[in-house]
Amino acid sequence: MVTQDGHRKVPRFTESGAMVNLSSKKLRVLAGVAAVAGFAALAMPAQAVQTSGGVPAPVQGKPAEVAVQGQQATAKAASSNTNIVRFNKLYNTGAIMASKCKEVNVSLRTAAGVKAYDQQLLTCMWQAWAPTLNAAGYNYKNKPTLIIYNTKATTYCGVISSPTSYFCGHGAASEIYIPWGYIASLWKQSPTYARAYATNTLAHEYGHHVQYQSGILSASWSRQYAFTTLAAKLEESRRRELQASCLGSAMLGASKRYYPMSGGLYTQWKYVVSHSGDQPGGVRDHGSIANHNWWSTAGFYAASTKTYVNRCNTFNSASNRVA
Ligand SMILES: [Zn+2]
């Protein structure tokens, strides 16, 4: 859906975070995908919780964490997953390091341009997140692979059939898929908007990488799988997605003086995060527009020169904040 906002088309925002857990071939988990978040020019009514037409992301196979026999073991696994998402060591880490990388001055008109732009930003994020992951005792050396594609891609986690920013984690590998043609189309409408969108999208996907390294992504998928109602499954998806946005914004906030996230880019970024989220009437898996803006703003923490992961604990948040 494309809606109008003044003279500029407000683009659709699609992305999803998927994960494959390969503890063994038999226990291979294909958890994910096809989650679609919409950009919409209209604010979501506060009470609108729509699940009609909402289908939880397909989960095929059994997550290793819950593929254990007996109620006791299952209960233990459930409790463990909740501990991982709510009380993760990530939340006790200090200020996120400021990346001193500058934004790359390149046109996003071509695949090569988008790749050059995102590749450097990815490296900056990798460097900036390393001390936090290391402090929490997680693997900080794994660097996601950036894959620029146009309309369709076949990934380890599944097929992407429409331009969607996408995270896929499996084993020690993390892959981030970015649809360059979509970003190029934004560039034609507004280069500054395209930069803000590209920056925020990669930051969000990197947020999924941080979740993956810390075990949160896997634990959250296991929780989602274990919940029995559609409403509970969707709420878990929203907690996971809103956290990815918050983490992405926290990284951008930590680096705001250097990137810099200021001036027109900051103005457009605020527009991006305040218009992203579930479209009215669509699947409620990424969070309302109001809540997406709230968590993005919380992570960015404009009032401070430092940002912290513990501002992004969506898993310990009241349901209305992750509606
Ligand atoms: Zn996501």
Detailed description of the structure:
The chain has about 325 residues and is of the alpha+beta class. It has one domain. It contains eight helices and ten strands. The strands form three sheets. The protein has a six-stranded mixed β-sheet with strand order 5-4-3-9-10-6. A two-stranded antiparallel sheet has the order 1-2. Strands 7-8 form a two-stranded antiparallel ribbon. Strand 7 (about 155) and strand 8 (about 160) form a beta hairpin. The chain is globular, with a radius of gyration of 18 Å. The model is unreliable at about 1-15 and about 20-70 (pLDDT under 50). Bound molecules: zinc ion.
Please give a handful of descriptors for the protein shown.
about 325 residues, about 40% helix, 10 strands, binds zinc ion, six-stranded mixed sheet, disordered N terminus, alpha+beta, 8 helices, single chain
Roughly what percent helix?
Answer: 40-55%
How many β-strands, per DSSP? 10
The main β sheet shows up as: 6 strands, mixed
Assembly classification: single chain
Strand order in the sheet with the most strands: 5-4-3-9-10-6
Q: What is the percentage of strand-forming residues?
A: 5-15%
Bound ligand species:
zinc ion
Helix and strand topology:
Blueprint: E1 3-5, E2 8-10, E3 15-21, E4 29-31, E5 59-60, H1 71-86, H2 111-135, E6 145-149, E7 153-155, E8 158-160, E9 165-170, E10 173-179, H3 180-189, H4 191-213, H5 216-226, H6 230-254, H7 263-273, H8 289-300
Parallel strand pairs: 3-9, 6-10
Antiparallel strand pairs: 1-2, 3-4, 4-5, 7-8, 9-10
Helix pairs in contact: 1-5, 2-4, 3-4, 4-6, 4-7, 5-6, 6-8
